[in-house]
Amino acid sequence: MSNYSAGLGKPGSGKRRLKDLLNQPDNRVCADCGASDPKWASTNIGVFICLKCCGVHRSLGTHISKVLSVTLDEWSEEEVDSMIEIGGNASANSIYEAFVPDTCSKPGPDVSHDQRMRFIRAKYELQEFLKPSLRIKSGKRSTKSSAFLTSSLSRKIMDSFKSNSSSQKMEGMVEFIGLLKVTVKKGTNLAIRDLMSSDPYVVLNLGKQKLQTTVVNSNLNPVWNQELMLSVPESYGPVKLQVYDYDTFSADDIMGEADIDIQPLITSAMAFGDPEMFGDMQIGKWLKSHDNPLIDDSIINIVDGKVKQEVQIKLQNVECGELELEMEWLPLDQ
């Protein structure tokens, strides 16, 4: 569960909590086509969608997708709680779009109705992009079996959050759900902050934790390959990454920053459970968008029984610079 869903779970009006969830960055665009300002939602799937995709969802039937207007319909507390616990579009898409093949492109806001229909049916009704353990075994899908699978899938996703939450351990007044190992690999074309070069180092912040790499002297293309370990609390946000130029006699100069969204990694890992039970496979992705620093989509894989994610980012608020990272999720029971 992210810091967003944890915060939204506090007592308050359903409409207010739903609006707060909708205002999260990943929920400001349609989960299926990326259209801005979605005003509809599938309450059993847990995604916000636009009017055009809403029409397709309705055509699938309520046994596949139960659609409500965010502004016009009355929501039960149970429906609001379900949306909040799933976490919104990023969490749901990390499951429902875990295995989108290269031959299938996600539709944009202006695609034809037929293209939109084919993708949404494949995603939710046929469930072609799910991890194998959640897919229907039988080739025949009746309305009854589809309803049962959709309900079972929603329960599995919800149960993955709840079972992991129940195994959390206490440290002081903070509950931790696992460990995040970040390998800071290298930087490319970093900004000059001294006369001809820089002495860069990387700082990671998560909650009250602050870790940093060693300083690499006079190098705009530094190689660190250094592992940093962060404890992830129940209420977590993005990892705040900053790059600095080390100065001996003055304050260190900023060389760029970025927010690293760890929710897709944690959501995918929790949905699968023990990764050692699976072979090497892709289980999710963090999608590149104008709202994040990704250079390309960041793929989440099981590799040798471990959940890992390769991340390439363009540093923000600086003239140039890129970083390459690897993240690995370690649940507390490991």
TrEMBL record:
Transit peptide as UniProt keyword: no
* InterPro entries xrefs: ARF_GAP_AGD11/12/13, ARFGAP/RecO, ArfGAP_dom, ArfGAP_dom_sf, C2_dom, C2_domain_sf
Q: Which stretches make up the Arf-GAP domain?
A: 15-138
Which SMART domains does its entry note?
A: ArfGap (SM00105), C2 (SM00239)
Provide this UniProt record's keywords sorted from A to Z: Metal-binding, Zinc, Zinc-finger
User: What are the C2 domain coordinates in residue numbering?
Assistant: 159-278
Q: Which Pfam families match?
A: ArfGap, C2
The name under which this protein is listed is Probable ADP-ribosylation factor GTPase-activating protein AGD13 isoform X2
Q: What is the lineage of its organism?
A: Eukaryota, Viridiplantae, Streptophyta, Embryophyta, Tracheophyta
